Amino acid sequence: MKKVLYLLIVVSLVLCRCANKPEAKEQKQVAISEIVKTETAFINPPLKHIDVPYREFIVSAQKGKKITLASGSKIVFPPDAFVDSDGKIVKGDVTVLYREFKDPAAIFMAGIPMAYDSLAPTHVFESAAMFEIKALQNGSALGVNPQRKPQLSLDSRSKSPDYNTYYLDTIQKKWKLKGDAVFSDSAKQAKAVDTVYSDDEFIIDGGQPDLPVSPQKPSQASGNRPVFSVDAESYAMFPEFKIYKDTEFEVDESEKNYNPKDSETEWDKVQLAKTETRGIYQITFKTRQRIVSYRVRPVYTGKRYDEAIKAFNSEYAKYEKVRQKALAKIEVQRRVQCFFEIDNFGFWNCDRLFREQTEKLQALFADENGNPIKLSLYYLVNKQYNTVFTFYDGGISIVPDSRNTIWTVKEGKFVYCPYPEFIKAEKQQKNGTCTFRMTTYKDSITNYDQVKKLLQI
Known about the structure:
The protein is built from 5 helices and 29 strands. By secondary structure, it is an alpha+beta fold.
């Protein structure tokens, strides 16, 4: 009887365990699925319907190609730069996709992680130059021939020696250090390093263009100072008078020695010279017996003045066009560029670790009407630094006394804290807690420029 009872107990226990197993298995599956749902993609654009657009180029794999963009960036593909998934050199045309991330709005829209894990705690990158480049043939991704690496140069926000270059490994989900950043002022004869294109591929002509001299605006005669005319040959060598007719000269008010009788004298020679003051000239009259000299300024009277103003406006428009072109050329020559020699296609960055002093705060959020709202994921940017900080569940760190902006995406809508509201929240903080009043953008965000405008960056 005892054996039977013991057997029944064992059978009951086994049955109970068997009955409980499916339930435990089901609970485990639910837990895993919940984890999967909450895990976000490594490259995760928060606004799914828009992203930073790519530029597309067709490159002959055998010939290679040098691409120069309007932004000043250059991409050089040497011949045989592409390999397929088996490592074989590719022939034929290759489609290259390229885009740059010049500001926090672009970094945010592309969903690029800016955290860097080293042996120390996690840091945030501050970017000086960042881009993504892909190569495709017949829809298949290509790799880089390690013997014929492409090179890129693009504008950098800095040339500080504490910047490095990094490659984003999307398999291991982390940025990989590639080496020290290489910078160059593009006005200098910068040579690329360790490449078959090392002689002059990245050289931009040196020499800074001279800015044109603006036309001299005509002055109207004052009416209370002596005015006289001279032969046009006396001032023909001065280009500032070429656009005007019938120029006269008025004795400048700084001239205290003018003798009115000199206007009645027939002079043998008249000479005009510039003074240290623009628009004021020294006119010298000579005979064999006398030499007199006065400070004067060119003037126009009556209809001559109206005609002179008309001529000036026309000439000034031409001058401004030439000036803008010269300034644009100077700006290009002043640019600092960062150079990359890439051994993989993907995301590349010129970064340094963000080390500015920050103030840790507890963040609360409210809508436009002051009603509390919960945000579990949100982003912060400081206009001075080219990065995006990501925060969760009420934590936030800011750079004090500088231009911070905070934003997120909630239920498909762009939600942001305008800069004036951010300042107000910062000033009204209590015991390290700030309440940020957020604005929900009611319309759809359709492009990158909208994001920049809303964030004022």
